[in-house]
Design a protein that fits this description.
alpha/beta
Length: 159
């Protein structure tokens, strides 16, 4: 991801993950983000779990957006995951989650992190985008689903 556009690298997209608990999802997200973040997966997972204990990232509608600002991170990292079966994420609407989007930003990106998070949240409240994500069977399908709203909105993810 760059500051001007959300860039989704193929290795940061995971369709139809077969994970059965919030902990397993967090651990897998951390594993995926570790290389582009140049951090240890355990450190990322620990921070995500700490944040989840403070407040759930389940925003409702079957969507969770775990997010952090990390001191050692040099650039934003975005990981998109759909789940093969919904998982309890202690969401605000008490509905299980089947779409998970993780956003990690450098600690110094305070306002930029909030802008990225707001745009991601708007996207994942879009019924058409979520339907397309739920129908996605491949990394390509997920990228297409994420980019379709950008066409409709004139570049939703511009920072």
């Amino acid at each position: 991801m760059s500051d001007s556009v959300f860039h989704i690298d193929a290795d940061l997209v995971l369709p139809l993950a077969k994970l059965s608990t919030r902990r397993k999802i967090i651990d897998r997200l951390a594993d995926l983000a570790a290389s582009p973040a140049s951090m240890e997966p355990a450190a990322i997972a620990a921070r995500l779990l700490q944040r989840e204990r403070q407040a759930t990232s389940g925003i409702g509608g079957g969507v969770a957006i775990p997010h952090l600002r990390l001191r050692l991170l040099e650039r934003p990292v975005f990981v998109m995951m759909t789940l093969a079966a919904p998982v309890d994420f202690d969401a605000v609407d008490r509905q299980p989650v089947d779409i998970v989007a993780m956003l990690l930003s450098p600690e110094t990106d305070g306002p930029l992190h909030l802008r990225r998070l707001a745009r991601l949240s708007r996207l994942l409240r879009d019924d058409m985008a979520c339907t397309a994500l739920r129908r996605a069977r491949s990394e390509h399908d997920i990228r297409m689903a994420l980019n379709a709203p950008m066409v409709r909105t004139g570049g939703m993810f511009a920072a």
